[in-house]
Amino acid sequence: MNRREFILRSGLISLPILLTGCAWKSRSLNYKVIVDSDYTIGHSMLKGLPEYEIEHAIRDTEVAIIGGGIAGLVAANAVKLKGFKPLVLELSASLGGTSSSKNYGEVYFSQGAHYELAYPDYYGESTLKFLEQSGLIYFQPWTKQWSFKERKHIITGNRKGRSFYKGMYSEELFPPSQQKNKFIELMASYEGMMPMPTPKIDSSLHYLNELSFYTFLNDEIGVSEEMKIALDYQMKDDYGAGMEQVSALAGIHYYACRPYYRKVVELFSPPEGNSYFVNHFNSKLKEEERKTSQMVISMEENARGVLLGVLDYPNKRRYQIQANKAIYAANKHTLRHIHPDHSKLFKHQQAPWMVVNIIIRNELNDLGFWQNEMVVDDTTFMGFIDSDSQTERSNIRVFTAYYCLPAESRKDLINVESNAAIIADQTISYISEYFHTDIESLVLEVQIKVMGHAMPIPEVGYLFNDANRLIPNSNIRYAGVDNGRLPLFFEAVDSALSAVESL
């Protein structure tokens, strides 16, 4: 059976339904499919920890940092700047968390967060200063914005994006209309009032955190069907849920945090995505200051600070670390096993994501756009990033497709590996539909990244719940966007700097 016959007979199945089956029937493929998931390691606490050799000597460190994503690595850099020694402990085999990347030969591509935008001059001074001192950004006085130094990764305006809906291309999902004009006018009225980090937002606007974005817009200007389709897509694409779940404050912030309506806001997107920042911060750490494949299984305060229990997977041993202080920058859902007393401080919903990298021989004639928004029957499919917009023309091209799943699908992610072939095939079908040509014969390899707790959903009531304010006398601090922040790079950096400062 060839691919076209297979698709016609099976139909395109929505990902949540596909994942409920343990092993859907798939055909043989002419390319390799690789799945990267921490499910086995991450869920070993639920299944029972391995019986590893116990190391009785306790190791000492000044500041232990749990989690090697953006927040954890920034915290380590900030700790070093203050003259103390950090030790980063990361569960995965590589650093990056939801800002990770992979490669095919010498070609690198993102498997998570993949871009950042220039910052207005009214953003948080301490975070801007840190990023400037880190050699990442510089101030453009003619635009009053902070942009990124590495200019080759700026995506030009005519390549930024294209939308695909009902088989047709357009510049944007929300087409020009009288209602759109009202929407733009309403969002522009909040410009300058929605800075980052979000703790800088004036308390007079906090009431917007207590109602949904849909309720707010429906009361102000009404919400048409085409408006809801477009805004649901954009909220899910950056925040993990639609406008009925996301708070009005989060939604307004998305459109008003930068001067979108009166200036060009530069878009920064290296081929490896936000792993660019991971590599930058990691390069400032010594080898002995970060360790991967280390699972923290317990965290308790004692007279000397914080005692951590750790599983060392590569060396199959269990050991303890005595730290003076600890910064927890890993995903907070694991706290119910590691530090139950603090787990009650984090009750937010998190969106599961799956990233599918389609690596092809670059024999397409189509000029690539950076973000390709797609609205299809499977509403979990969010379109793809095309590497053709990020690099000079080469023999290899990568389509990085994203799926945002509902929270209830998290338990079904265990089935990704057994269904990897059909997930790859289905994703190729969506991209083939976009280009109006079957790309399967060009595919060299497919890589799938599974993230069960990829981002906190900024739902109603979520923002401003900083756990660190509730534990002022603790030797533990929390960093990361899942500590009452929006799931954005600037927020992750600021959360880490704030955690270090408060210690």
Secondary structure layout plus pairing:
Elements: H1 3-10, H2 15-20, E1 32-37, H3 39-42, H4 44-47, E2 53-66, H5 70-81, E3 86-89, E4 101-104, E5 107-110, E6 116-117, E7 119-120, H6 125-133, E8 137-140, E9 145-148, E10 154-155, E11 161-165, E12 168-170, H7 178-188, H8 213-220, H9 225-239, H10 248-256, E13 267-268, H11 275-282, E14 290-291, E15 294-302, E16 305-312, E17 317-328, H12 335-338, H13 340-343, E18 350-361, E19 371-375, E20 381-386, E21 396-404, H14 420-435, E22 443-456, E23 476-478, H15 489-502
Helix pairs in contact: 5-11, 5-15, 8-10
Termini gap:
62 Å
Structural class: alpha/beta
CATH class category label of the largest domain: Alpha Beta
- Adjacency order of strands in the biggest sheet: 1-22-18-21-20-19-11-12
The percent of residues in helical segments reads: 25-40%
Biggest beta sheet attributes: 8 strands, mixed
CATH architecture of the largest domain: 3-Layer(bba) Sandwich
What does this entry look like structurally?
With 503 residues, the chain is an alpha/beta fold. The protein folds into 3 domains: 3-30 and 350-456, no CATH class; 44-108 and 273-347 and 465-502, FAD/NAD(P)-binding domain, CATH 3.50.50.60; 128-264, Guanine Nucleotide Dissociation Inhibitor, domain 1 (Orthogonal Bundle), CATH 1.10.405. It is 26% helix and 27% strand. The chain is built from 15 helices and 23 strands. It has helices at residues 3-10, 15-20, 39-42, 44-47, 70-81, 125-133, 178-188, 213-220, 225-239, 248-256, 275-282, 335-338, 340-343, 420-435, 489-502; strands spanning 32-37, 53-66, 86-89, 101-104, 107-110, 116-117, 119-120, 137-140, 145-148, 154-155, 161-165, 168-170, 267-268, 290-291, 294-302, 305-312, 317-328, 350-361, 371-375, 381-386, 396-404, 443-456, 476-478. The chain has an 8-stranded mixed sheet with strand order 1-22-18-21-20-19-11-12, sandwiched between helices. Strands 2, 3, 14, 15, 16, 17 and 23 form a 7-stranded mixed sheet that branches. β11 (161-165) and β12 (168-170) form a beta hairpin. α5 (70-81) runs parallel beside α11, α5 crosses α15 (489-502) and α8 crosses α10 (248-256). It is globular. The N and C termini lie far apart (62 Å). The model is unreliable at 4-10 (pLDDT under 50).
